[in-house]
Write a structure and sequence with these properties.
With 359 residues, this protein is an alpha/beta fold. The protein is built from eleven helices and 13 strands. It has one domain: TIM Barrel (Alpha-Beta Barrel), CATH 3.20.20. The strands form three sheets. Strands 1-4-5-6-7-8-9-10 form an eight-stranded parallel β-barrel, surrounded by four helices.
């Protein structure tokens, strides 16, 4: 399956938390699969692809997606979010049942797909959502902080869930975990202005150490994903270390014109490509989209124009919640024909492509 590079486990010199990270064979195999997949092209991903879409919701009996309705293929990469799991809720912040999430992850894995999970964690100071920026939560959840005990319990809940996701032979299903994303912007409690760079790095390192070593969820790969950045220095501002990051991610949405988005995406790709080579890391467009996809040729003339040949592993587009908040086409939508055209390009990989070639 292409080149096989072992994941980095230790950091040679560090003033922050230093430890030897546990990495399971399942995690290493997923990393190898991603590297082999990247040699063929990039994988198409979608958030909550099989749990709901425009005009439908999965009751547990379906394996359906808006993308499949258009292209005849499911996405290769499936994104989910575990926000509210830390509070021991039965469903996440978008009302997706964790039992349904677990079963869908298993189905994706059985068909050769790849799973990535983000975490819109609640503010540990008051239990409110990720966008609540009251206080200095990061400082208080670190190992010497007054809320560390609460935070450890949250991570124990997260690890229990990850460790419960298993195949028919009781092997843990490997997952790409993307916690504390978009840290370079001021909208989450772990983001810019709510903690120092050093505090964020320690937050990340403690999370990896606790999940993989203490709570035995060592079948995880970790993706670091800032929002819009313009320089290599900006990208690395909160970077916690090569030993605790497996994938260099980037989150970027189109909010204005396609030209400005393309320019920004192209610049960011140049930066992460250079860093990927320097650090021998995989890289991906970990969260993206254009709400309502109002550009008829957005998929082929905007997205693929930048991503084709870029070397990224995958591109994940955000969820299809409703007709005024969706980031992928659905049947009858104005960009649906273009998405179908994109799916016919050999270098754009869907579930059936990676299942046949790599699973």
């Amino acid at each position: 399956m292409g080149s096989c590079k072992s994941l980095q486990r230790t950091r040679s010199t560090d003033t922050m938390t230093s430890f030897k990270r546990n990495i399971s064979s399942e995690a290493q195999e997923l990393h190898n699969k991603l590297r082999a997949m990247t040699e063929k092209g990039y994988a198409f991903g979608h958030q909550d692809a099989t749990v709901y879409g425009i005009g439908w919701k999965n009751d547990g009996s379906l394996f359906k997606s808006d993308i499949h309705e258009i292209t005849g293929q499911h996405p290769a990469v499936h994104g989910f979010d575990i926000g509210h799991l830390e509070l021991e809720w039965m469903h996440n912040l978008d009302t997706v049942s964790f039992d349904l999430m677990r079963s869908q992850i298993k189905k994706v894995h059985e068909q050769g797909g790849i799973v990535t999970i983000s975490w819109h964690a609640s503010n540990p100071i008051n239990g409110k959502d990720s966008w609540n920026r009251r206080g200095k939560p990061v400082r208080h959840v670190l190992s010497n902080g007054r809320l560390h005990h609460t935070y450890r319990a949250w991570l124990a809940n997260v690890a229990t869930f990850f460790n419960s996701i298993r195949d028919d032979e009781n092997n843990p299903i490997p997952i790409i975990f993307r916690p504390f994303h978009e840290m370079n912007k001021p909208w989450f409690w772990w983001g810019k202005g709510k903690c120092s760079e050093a505090e964020y790095k320690e937050l990340w390192r403690e999370l990896v150490m606790l999940l993989t070593n203490e709570f035995k969820a060592d079948h995880l790969l970790f993706a670091y994903s800032p929002d819009f950045f313009e320089t290599k220095e900006e990208y690395l501002q909160y970077y916690p270390g090569d030993d605790v990051v497996d994938i260099l991610g980037m989150d970027l949405y189109q909010h204005w014109t396609s030209n400005s988005f393309s320019k920004n995406l192209g610049n960011e790709l140049e930066i992460v490509t250079q860093l990927g080579k320097e650090k021998e890391k995989l890289y991906a467009l970990t969260e993206s989209g254009h709400n309502k996809v109002r550009v008829p040729d957005w998929w082929t003339n905007v997205i693929d124009r930048q991503l084709a040949g870029s070397g990224i592993s995958w591109a994940l587009f955000w969820r299809n919640a409703r007709t005024n908040h969706h980031f992928v086409s659905y049947p009858g939508q104005e960009s649906a024909t273009d998405l179908h055209a994109l799916s016919k390009r050999a270098h754009v990989l869907f579930l059936e492509d990676i299942s046949a070639a790599l699973h």
